[in-house]
Structure formats: structure tokens, C-alpha cells
Amino acid sequence: MALNPAHAQEQATPESSKQEASTTLETIVVSAQKRSEDVQKVPVSVSVVGGEQLEQMHATQLSDYVGYAAGVQMVTAGTPGTGQIAVRGITSLGTNSTVSTYIDETPLGSSTFFAAAVNNVLDLLPYDVESFQIFRGPQGTLWGAGAFGGVAQYVTRKPELDYTSFRAGTDVFSLDGSHQTGYGVRASANLPLIANRLAASISLAKQFTPGYIDNVDTYERDQNDFSQTAARLAVRWEPSDTVAVDLTAIKQKSEADNLGYVSVEPQTLKPVYGTTRNDNYTDEYDNRELEYFSGTVSWDVGFADFVSASSYSQTDYDANTDLTATFGPAIPLFTGGAVPEGRSSFLSHLKLYKTTQEFRLASKPSDTFEWIVGTFYTHENSRNYQLITAQFPDSSSIPGLDPLANAELPSNYKETAVFGSVTWKINERFDLSGGVRQARNEQDFAQIIAGALSPPGTMTGESEEDVTTWSLGARFFATPNTMVYARAATGYQPGGPNAAIPDVPTQVDSSTLTNYELGIKSTLLDRRLTFDLAAFNIEWEDLQIRTTSNGISYLVNGGKARSRGVELSATYLPVAGLRLGVNGAYTDAELTEDVPSIGGLNGDSLPFAPKWSGSVTADYLFPSSGEWSTRVGGGVRYTGERRTAVDHDPSGQPLDDYTALDLNADIANDRWTFRIFIKNLTNEDVFVNAVPQASALGGLTTVRAISLQPRMIGVGVDVKF
Questions:
Q1: N or C, which terminus of the chain has less Cβ within 10 Å?
Q2: How many Å is the Cα radius of gyration of the chain?
Q3: Cis peptide bond N-terminal to 403, omega within 30
Q4: Is residue 361 within 8 Å of residue 304, measured between CB atoms?
Q5: Angle at CA 549, nearest 5°, toward 543 and 552?
Q6: Residue 14: what pLDDT?
Q7: pLDDT 10s digits, 666-714
Q8: Cα–Cα dist 628/685, whole Å
Q9: Distance of CA 375 to the CA centre of its chain
Q10: Range list of H helices, 236-354
């Protein structure tokens, strides 16, 4: 199947698995402006991936498909839930995320840097996902504080009120270099409880992905395997023709025995022991669990549509990092030579509790004037526990030295906001729009320190902040199917109280950016060709920079940056059943001021921001025999050269460009679907991330790199009844 994020394929009907060859491109509905609209008429750059596409390509994590979206990069640590999404070259230089993540109407993840938001991303198993949407550029006016560089939204399937259906599937696959076999199992049911009024759907899924990295110290094979489990319950109630209530509960867990690191030499990234070998002494596990509950009420009040969206989520994160290369050589100094070089680990445990509530009122579609007004509230409570150990070579504790450091960083974040937007349709071809959001956040935290290397103590901090974001836009329909738009919009990363360290600012200010965009969207050739073209200029101020002092991390504001570029997405149906797609981006993201705290100079490229990236896709659906249809597809994705830090940061590592080829095919009838999928067909051997480790005695000791997942070949089957 060919993935084209700008135009999701049509879904099969509930009673049928068989697909029909289309002769025109379907209408894609998105909610980028907090109302349901045709993506080709929305003056925002949007990429959409349909749920059926995700299943066809066997997508089980974001890194499987975001590379097909123009201007979007996935910075991964090699296992689900780790890393960040970067849009238009805007990557975090601190610990705050630059992209807000939503499930339907409500956000997930933290708005504050005390909850390590930059290292956490939602990898939702896609069995119940109707579509995955990315809104590029800041969306702070309607989507809030986290929508700094963009928004990533999972739109889930709603229960159907008028039919009963069951669905189940499984797949098995191999990974090049692994001694294990991967598998996935899944099942779902849709159950009407009161005809045309009340229904529920439930789904379960489990995915096991084998490892392929061997450990030269512990002799463990395939140490970086991971598993994902997910369960979802959804209820839809329509007590009348004007009211709908949606309730959702999701529980998802991912467990990785080790991350996908390989030990490499600094700057050259030449593997020390081989392309699939690491030398960690302790298991670098990463376990994440999400519990999410939401309730949405949609009410047609006549003159407008009212929405109440509530959510509560609990995120648990438990991980271990081997710091032997950092603190091991220093242990003889700490003990006066009494203990030889030892081992060390960094254990972290994070718990985040988040409550959100949004009320909004949106006018009915109008030929003259449309508006949205709303209010938003969130409360985040996080508990961040950190521990650095000191151990003998046999991994037993060193008395009097273990732990080297022990810290607890509890924090609270509260935000209230009011927002609104208006669109004035001057005539049927031209309109103007504007919006504003006024937000206030209040934060407090405590820094509770203990351990052999630091005197015990408790310090606290708090902050208050008022932030205004805005958007302005103009839209002109040159023809009913061709739209030209101009847009200016802002976004921000919240500031907050800083780590309590002498000579360090007590508060970090918000980081803000402004995006100026000019675009064109067109549908041509009797709806057989669509294209979206956008040029943008982003000005970023008061960058939040992470730095350290005596082993304690903190943030400072410093410097400015700019990102300029062009993005293109196009889809073409030359004949019935054949779909061709192209996505591409040129991005020039760089510092526009010196940033001494990270060694950055004016003109340095921003991290993980390739100048060139893109993809080409093809998908062909045709009848085969009787009730059966056959579909074959594939995609080629390209990511250009980039660095893991700004150019003059000595810890930064160069990453080569790469091209990966993915193929998939299936044969289906009204009930059965049999598929085959291949990811990274040519087994491209390249590193997509690299993390340096410095010695406590000074200097860079080693670098651990993450490779592109090796070639995967698998088969699967799904049945509907």
C-alpha cells in the first residue's frame, strides 16, 4: 500500500473487507480549526494518514509512518514512546516538547519541563485509529500551550449505533539479524445496546517486536526486544437528534528490555564492536503505561454547536540508563582508591496525572460570519524520581557511596485560558480570519536532593505567567477548487521555575515563535489530482536551552532561531485503482544569534533538521478473481543529512542521509484479508540518532547510536464477521 498522508484512502464498509477501485479522490475531513472541514479548504498545512493505511503498512509506532509526512521528522530512541516529533525543523533544545499530542478532543503529555516532555511521545497502537493528523506550524490560538511547532492528533473510531460487527487479526514477521519471531494479535467488537441510540465498542491488541542487538559484556542476544499491549472501550450515546455523548477509556503499555543502542566512536560513528552490538553492563529498560479517560458532549443548540471535552490521564514511566562510562572511572577518586573502577546506573521514575476541561461554542456554517469561543483548563501533577547508583564491578552496592545522587522533583502546573476566532466572508471567494488566546499558568515545584555527592536539602520554586497567542489569515478561492491562503500564527512553550542552583535564574521565560505562511491547495482533473504547496518563515525567540552545573540540569533562555522552507504534498489518480503520491520539504533551520551555553554560533543548523526530505508512493488496486480484489503498494522515503546538536556544539554527532523502501500487498474479499508487508526492503544500515556520554572526569567517553530498524518481512490475516 502506498502511504500518502495528505489524502487518506477510503475505508471499507463495516460489512466488507473488499476494497473498490476509486476513480476520484475522496474528501478528507479534518479538525485543524476546531470544526469539521474539507482539508483542501482549510488554510493550514495538514497531513492525514487513514487507519486503513496504518494497518496495510503494519504501522505499530510513529517512526513507521511520520517519515511520509512533508516536513516532519521522528527523533527516536529505538522503542515506542521514546523521542519527539519535530515539525519544520523546530526541535527541542531543552526538555519541553515542541508538538502537542491529542486523542480526539483532549491533550496528553506534560506542558512543563519538569515532566521530561521532550522524551515522551504517544505511540498508539492503530487498531482503533480512524486517522492520524498532523497540523504543521504553531497552533497556539485554538490548541494551546503545547502546540508550539504543531499538533499531532489521533482520531479514534466511534461506536456505530446500527449494526453489530466483530473483527480479529494476527500477523507474524521476522527482523533481519534477530533470532526471534515477532507477532501481533488483535480483536474488536461493535455492539449496539439500544438501537440507534446507544452502542459500545471494545478492542484488544498485543504486539511483540524482536530485538536484533547483542551485548558483548553480558552475552545476551537480541536484547532490545519490546512488547506493546492496548485495550480500549468506547461508548456512544445519542439521547436525542441534537445531543451526542462519547466516553472513552484507553489503557496502553509498552515494555522494552533494552533500548536500541549500539556503541560507536565519536564523530565517525564507526561501530566499536559491530553494527548490532552494544556494551551496556546493566539492562537499559524502558517501561511506559498510559491510562486515559475522556468524555465529550456535543450539543446542537440551534444557533451554534456546543462541545464539552473532559479528560483524565495517568502516565507512568520507568527507565534505567547505564552510566558506567560517565561515573565508573571516577569511583576510584570518590573512594580514595579503595574501590577499583566500578559501575553506575541512572534510574528514573516519572508519574504524571493530568486533568483537562474545554468548553467551546462554534457558530453554524455561514456565508458571511463564523466564530468560535471557548475556555480551557488543565491541572498537571508530576512526580519525578531520579537515582544515580555507585556499584562494584559485580553490581553490588558500594557502602557509603551508593547512591551517588538521589533526587525528587514534584511539580504542579495549572493553566486557564480563554480563546476565540472569527472568519469574515467578504464574498463567496474571499475571507479574512483572526483569533486570540489569553492564557495564564501557575507552577510550583520542589527540589529534594540527597546522596553521597551532594548535601541533603529541599528547595522550592514557583512562577506565574500570562501569555497571549494570536493568528491572522486570509483565504481566496481563485476557483471553487483552488484556494490561496496567507497565515500568520504564534505558539509558545511555557516557562516556569528553574532548578535551585546558585547563580542560575530562578525562572525560565516562555519560548515563543511566529510562523508566516503562504500556501495554495487545489483539486484538479475531475478530482483526480490534488496538491498542497506551502512556503513558511518561522521566527523563534527566547529559546529554552538545557545545560548543566555540577551534574544538575537546568534551563536558560538564550538566542534566536529561524526556520524557512517549502513543503509539497500531491496525489494523482491516473487510472481507476492507481494512486500516486509525492511529499517533499526543503527546510533551512538555523540559529540567528550565538548561544554560548551550548556552543552554538549564528548560522548553526538546528538539530535533527535535514534540509531535504520527502517520499514517493504508489498504490494499485484491481479485481483478481470472483469476490477477491488485490492491492499492491510501496513507498520510498528520504531523509537528508543532519546533526544531533547545533553545528558548533562539541557533543553533536553527524547523521548520514538515507533512503528506505517499504512494500506491502493484500488480497481481500467481503470477509477475509491476507497481507504481506516489508519495511526497509534494502536493509538500509544507517544511524538515525546518537547520544553522547561524557566522563565525570571530563571529555567524551563514548557515543551510543540508534540504527534504522533493519528489514522486516511479515504476513498477516484479518477477518470480519
A1: C
A2: 25
A3: yes
A4: yes
A5: 90
A6: 41
A7: 999 999 999 999 999 999 999 999 998 888 777 777 899 999 999 999 9
A8: 37
A9: 25
A10: 324-327, 331-334
